[in-house]
Amino acid sequence: MNQYLYEGNAAEVERMTKEALAEGRIVQEVLTEGLIAGMAVVGEDFKYNILYVPEVLIAARAMKAGMAVLKPLLAARDAEDASNKASVLLMGTVRGDLHDIGKNLVCMMAEGAGFEVHDIGVDQSVEKFMAAADKYEPQIIGMSALLTTTMTYMKTVIDGFEADGRTDVKFAVGGAPISQMFADEIGADGYGTDASSAVELFLKFIGHL
Question: Which of 81, 111, 146 corresponds to the end of one domain?
């Protein structure tokens, strides 16, 4: 399955997902060892310029074909997702930071995993994150930063939401200078070392892992 996903062969990914379930594989196993593991390779090759955005998009569409098979089974386990409505993810790079390659990859992979993704772009203030949260009502907000000079603004965003009484959203952070220790210090709910681990974290947030 991993190879077909890497090649962007949506029909084969869908077929093999159904086949794995028919053989008695559990949903989480198919999701993590098949779809997420496959996209992790795509993400790694994208990082080193072996693959480019068009190939990643094609692979993400193939992942989406597999997720379409798994999603009803995942939703059935979670009463909140019984309507099969996509969970909403808001993504943005924090104020002062113009880097977006990692963020863009997370967005593509999250969309492939079945999330409704809203990317507000780079150099975003706490006010813009709040305005976007009002508009899209996300369950998860993902923030990225590539500079040590901008990463501290992540805490400004989290503190702003808390001060405004908005505690019903999960915050995930990532980027080259970010660590689990830093995520804990600023009160984030999770940290992704790379795009695939970020999507895995998002799925855990909504109870699908």
Answer: 81
Say how many C-beta atoms besides its own lie within 10 A of residue 51's C-beta.
18
Give the domain extent around 197.
88-205
Cβ contacts of 15 within 8 Å, gap of 6 or more: none
pLDDT at 93: 98
- For 87-131, the pLDDT digits (tens) are 899 999 999 999 988 898 899 888 878 799 999 999 999 999 999
> Which of 53, 81, 109 finishes a domain?
81
Judge if 149 and 184 occupy the same domain.
Answer: yes
Cα separation, 127 vs 79, in Å, equals: 33
